[in-house]
């Protein structure tokens, strides 16, 4: 029934566009296909293969140069699964953008907005299984600074279903727009308020993390396509209300990224500390010592399509040969105008 109502809403949106639009109608299509094999002895439950495709399509009603409404869907199919689509989530949001500000309200793609959070804080499987943010997001941009803030509702409270939402921020500050030094910040907090009928053994949880990094971008003088280093501190915290106070853990993080050319790149991530406690983070960061090396090969890259192989080597205490092999192919049509409308006639006499 819900799917039928959603389809009806899309049809009404398209049929009324010409009547109310002052500018144009546009469309955006993107797709992701992946085969992600994980051989993890350190985490047997996560030692599995993820494979499937995502297809996203939305239509936008452009009101003016700053305002638009977008409606569509994002569907996932895991290879071999029945029924065919594991889920088809709605895309429906208001979008505002000018030179300095961006604002989204509704259900909108996380890609291009908050898809580069550290894996320690937000696991990379979110791109497969939860591609949308459901809530609000704003971004401010200036010459040497940008900052994003968002709230994402994860679960609506019922008598049996827990209420969960996440809010967070990320940004970058470059003191000298042409200089190599910069600062990155990441923050997230998940609030789990429990079901409406709270059981005696249930508690409210608050779980989050803060990561600050100093960065050095040496690309200009390296002769490479890209060369950058980042180092900083990851703090994670957890509270079980009515049971424990705040638990905090800290660790040192270091990343290095080098792109030799358009085809070959390397990325190394290192963590040493107390072991994080972040529910939505990568489980490897629960270790007191962890290193990940990615070898990234891009055999083809065109204007709208990219195919990429990634071989990842995970090293943690007692497990030095965990590995991961990934192939991803992405296609992005971009946002294309499909119709323009004449201004409504002025019937005032």
Summarize the structure.
The protein is mainly beta and 349 residues long.
What does this structure look like?
With 349 residues, the chain is mainly β. Helix content is 8%, strand content 59%. The protein has a 16-stranded antiparallel β-barrel. The protein is globular. About 1% of the residues have low confidence.
Strand and helix map with partners:
Blueprint: H1 2-20, E1 24-39, E2 49-62, E3 67-78, E4 87-97, E5 101-109, H2 126-129, E6 132-141, E7 145-155, E8 163-173, E9 181-194, E10 205-217, H3 219-222, E11 226-240, E12 247-259, E13 264-273, E14 289-301, E15 305-316, E16 319-340
Count of discrete alpha- or pi-helical segments spanning 4 or more residues: 3
Secondary structural class: mainly beta
The portion of residues assigned to helices is: under 10%
Alpha-carbon distance between the two ends = 47 Å
Beta percentage is over 45%
Outline, from the CA principal axes?
globular
- Give the tally of β-strands: 16
Low-confidence stretches: 17-21
The major pleated sheet works out as:
16 strands, antiparallel, barrel
Mean pLDDT across the residues is: 89
Q: Give the spatial strand order of the biggest sheet.
A: 1-2-3-4-5-6-7-8-9-10-11-12-13-14-15-16
Cα radius of gyration in angstroms: 22 Å
SSE order: HEEEEEHEEEEEHEEEEEE
């Amino acid at each position: 029934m819900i799917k039928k109502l959603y389809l009806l809403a899309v049809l009404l949106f398209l049929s009324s566009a010409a009547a109310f639009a002052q500018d144009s109608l546009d469309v955006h299509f993107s797709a992701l296909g992946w085969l992600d094999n994980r051989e993890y002895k350190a985490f047997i439950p996560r030692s599995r293969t993820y494979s499937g495709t995502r297809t996203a399509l939305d239509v936008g009603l452009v009101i003016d140069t700053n305002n638009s409404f977008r409606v569509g869907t994002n569907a996932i199919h895991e290879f071999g699964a029945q029924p065919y689509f594991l889920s088809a989530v709605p895309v429906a949001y208001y979008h505002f953008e000018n030179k300095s500000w961006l604002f989204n309200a509704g259900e909108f793609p996380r890609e291009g907005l908050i898809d580069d959070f550290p894996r320690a804080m937000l696991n990379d499987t979110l791109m497969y299984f939860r591609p949308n943010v459901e809530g609000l997001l704003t971004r401010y941009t200036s010459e040497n600074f940008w900052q994003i803030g968002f709230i994402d509702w994860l679960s609506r409270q019922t008598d049996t279903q827990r209420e969960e939402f996440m809010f967070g921020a990320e940004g970058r500050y470059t003191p000298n727009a042409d200089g190599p030094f910069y600062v990155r910040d990441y923050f997230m907090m998940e609030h789990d308020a429990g079901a409406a009928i709270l059981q005696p053994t249930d508690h409210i949880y608050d779980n989050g993390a803060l990561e600050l990094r100093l960065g050095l971008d040496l690309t200009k003088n390296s002769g490479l396509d890209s060369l950058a280093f980042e180092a900083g501190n990851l703090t994670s915290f957890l509270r079980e209300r009515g049971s424990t106070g705040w638990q905090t853990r800290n660790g040192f993080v270091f990343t290095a990224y080098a792109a030799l050319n358009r085809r070959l790149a390397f990325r190394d991530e290192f963590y040493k500390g107390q072991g994080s406690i972040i529910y939505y983070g990568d489980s490897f960061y629960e270790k007191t010592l962890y290193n990940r090396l990615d070898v990234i090969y891009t055999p083809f890259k065109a204007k709208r399509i990219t195919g990429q192989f990634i071989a990842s080597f995970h090293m943690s205490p007692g497990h030095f040969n965990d590995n991961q092999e990934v192939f991803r192919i992405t296609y992005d049509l971009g946002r294309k105008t499909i119709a323009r409308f004449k201004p409504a006639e002025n019937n005032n006499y």
